[in-house]
Amino acid sequence: MKVWIDISNAPHVRFFKDVIKYLEAEGEDVIVTARQFGDIHKLMEMYDIDFISVGKHGVSLYDKLRESTERVYNLVDIINGEKVDVALSKHSIELPRISFGLGIPSLYVLDNEHALAANKLTLPLCDRIITPKIIDMWKLMKFGADPNTIISYDGTSELMHFKSFEYNDNVFDDLNLELKHPKTILMRPEPSLASYLNTDCRKSVLSPIVDELKNVANILILPRFKEQAEIFEGIENVSILKPPVDTSSIIKKSDLVIGAGGTMNREAAILQTPVISCYPGETLSVDQYYINKGLMFRSIDTDEVIEKALDLIVKPHEEIDVKTDDLFQVIIDNLYDLAKNGK
């Protein structure tokens, strides 16, 4: 079986790494393509994944359209002669369009019902869509998804990040961090360059939170790009992490996570590290999943976030038992079935 996997965002590397390793161990032929964006290439090298670099990210709407169009053009030439049996992606714009055009069965993983442009461009073209049960199927149908293609599971996509996770309790020492306070808070700025979030990449909702909490805890910032790192440079008790790093161990080692994005917040919830979401957009269903289970607190009120943070670093929540489906097996089973049956 020949499988094509396209990776378009940094968290997707961790999502697919175990799928790639499993398929290769089974003797399957795996073609991995990845665009140049954020830390994708560094993470691919860190996890020793062979890949073909194709295209890059666009910032403005014009740039996004132009880069995506050029990426489709270049990917078609690569994939056309490969005789691919099945294609797999997570929120890739280009893979479903190419797979549909070349008649390749495609499996699509979705966890953001608010990505309006991406969902309209992809969902009507996918043969199967794997999505968390918490996401309303009717919302996906409004984007053109065939309800017969939707496969729901209990949990969120971040479960995949921990299939082969080995915790490094010495991660802070390995990073040579200067930690003056007994408590440590990891923070992740908002995804300012994403098409679904209209924010200034040179500002962050975390700034006033950092200013207040730096006096009571060590602050670790994991920026998404250079401009975000510059926001927090030179601030006392603030350490800026330079990716790629072992984010999973850092999350588990930290006393609290405050995130203005999504992925890291949900990773913290899975690892049962107290987490506060101050994501400036509309609440995602996958975040609500962990909020409902008492594993995540959400607020966009700065004072409320600070108050809750002070409470959680002193009195973290008790461990909560959460039962989920085996997403890895759901993906593998559907890949093989699609390759065999085509639909």
UniProtKB/TrEMBL annotation:
Against InterPro entries, the record matches this protein to: DUF354 (IPR007152)
First and last residue of the signal peptide: none
SUPFAM superfamilies attached to this UniProt entry = UDP-Glycosyltransferase/glycogen phosphorylase
- PANTHER family listed in its UniProt record: DUF354 DOMAIN-CONTAINING PROTEIN, DUF354 DOMAIN-CONTAINING PROTEIN-RELATED
Name of this chain's protein:
DUF354 domain-containing protein
- Species of origin: Methanobrevibacter thaueri
